[in-house]
Specification:
By secondary structure, the chain is mainly alpha-helical. It has a domain of about 230 residues: MetI-like (MetI-like fold). It has 15 helices and three strands. α5 runs parallel beside α7, α7 packs antiparallel against α8 and α13 runs antiparallel to α15. The relative contact order is 0.10. The model has no long low-confidence stretch (mean pLDDT about 85).
């Protein structure tokens, strides 16, 4: 055959690895692995069978207390059917509960739109600027002192899923840019700025979130002038934002340190200013590198909103306790209520995690959505 002759194209090889081969390779590669895998599979089958029997086969789905207390009955999901309004919407007035439903749907729509790359345009900020006042207007019944023709509902009566979504989404949106500024400040060459940012991070990270919420709710009003009051929801929101920003700042600082020094020197050679260098060269690389850590903080913030119960704001977990503690008939079935709440948290946290993986793939391949 001539060296310059073209080689005819051949068909692609057919994959010969089946699921059975994969199971044998990963679970039963040798005697030790096989025994460990067998024991774990037996335990999972045993636990799964009992969970299926308790949660589905023998479960009671209707809101009937007498049926739930009968012998041989498994899980009583009737408690969710009976108390779902209080669990999901808290103490919001029953006749006005359409308002938190519409407001939460609007907030979820804004969050979903913000996750789509095709909507990453300057007008997305305009949607948020318009959407948040609509959310607060629907929830409160008035906005900036202007009546909207709705019944006024104080923030201490907000609760359930709307409050959880509000606290987590707004605190994350405010904490991330603050964390970036603090991280840049900790690497600043100006001693005063570097010391101020360091003190802030170390001070906030040295106390638990419960103490921050307690101080924001109960201690801060003591230092305000007489007659001046700040809404408890706003104080809690500021506390969560400052707490989350301190933790995220350290994650962002780790990404900044990972950017090679030569990148900054090359930007300076091109005549870019310090802010231009950070915006176009350093921050894109740093935030991409620490994306998993940031998402981990986002998930932690979403779950940490459950702590606001200590300041009498009843989000999902607090609303569940409120619903069951006031009704002795349904109080024994608190476990089923917590399983329902855990499922809601899992759906949101898992969705955030999967979206993070999608963003990582987009950044790795550099392809548009």
């Amino acid at each position: 055959m001539s060296p310059n002759a073209l080689i005819q194209a051949r068909t692609a090889p057919i994959a010969t690895t089946s699921w059975l081969t994969a199971v044998r390779t990963h679970l039963f590669a040798d005697w030790g692995t096989g025994i460990a895998s067998g024991v774990l599979l037996l335990l999972l089958a045993f636990a799964g069978a009992h969970l299926l029997d308790w949660g589905v086969i023998r479960a009671q789905w209707l809101p009937d207390v007498a049926a739930c207390r009968a012998d041989g009955v498994g899980a009583c999901w009737g408690v969710v059917a009976e108390k779902y309004r209080v669990i999901l919407l808290g103490r919001y007035p029953l006749e006005e509960q359409w308002r938190p439903v519409v407001a939460s749907s609007l907030l979820l729509a804004l969050l979903l739109v913000s996750c789509l790359r095709s909507f990453w345009r300057p007008w997305l900020a305009v949607l948020w600027v318009l959407g948040l006042p609509i959310y607060f207007g629907l929830m409160k019944g008035h906005l900036w002192g202007l009546s909207l023709g709705l019944t006024a509902v104080d923030t201490d009566r907000w609760g359930g899923l709307p409050l959880t979504l509000l606290l987590s989404s707004v605190s994350i949106a405010l904490a991330l840019p603050l964390a970036i500024l603090v991280a840049l400040g900790r690497r600043s060459e100006l001693p005063a700025i570097r010391a101020l940012c360091t003190v802030y991070v170390e001070l906030v990270r040295g106390v638990p979130l419960i103490s921050v919420l307690f101080m924001a709710s109960f201690m801060l009003p003591l230092f305000l002038p007489q007659g001046l009051t700040i809404d408890v929801l706003l104080r809690v929101l500021v506390g969560i934002t400052l707490f989350a920003a301190a933790y995220m700042a350290e994650v962002v600082r780790g990404g900044l340190q990972a950017v090679p020094r030569g990148q900054v020197e090359a930007a300076a050679t091109l005549g870019l200013s310090w802010w231009q260098t950070q915006r176009h060269v350093v921050l894109p690389q740093a935030l991409t590198a620490v994306l998993p850590g940031l998402v981990n903080n986002f998930i932690a913030i979403f779950k940490d909103t459950s702590l606001v119960t200590i300041v009498s704001l009843y989000e999902l977990t607090g609303a569940l306790s409120l619903a069951l503690n006031s009704d002795a008939d349904w109080r024994p079935f608190k476990l089923e209520g917590y399983v329902f709440i855990a499922l809601i948290y899992f759906v949101f946290c898992f969705s955030i995690s999967r979206y993070s993986l999608w963003v990582e793939r987009q950044l790795a391949h550099g392809t548009p959505s």
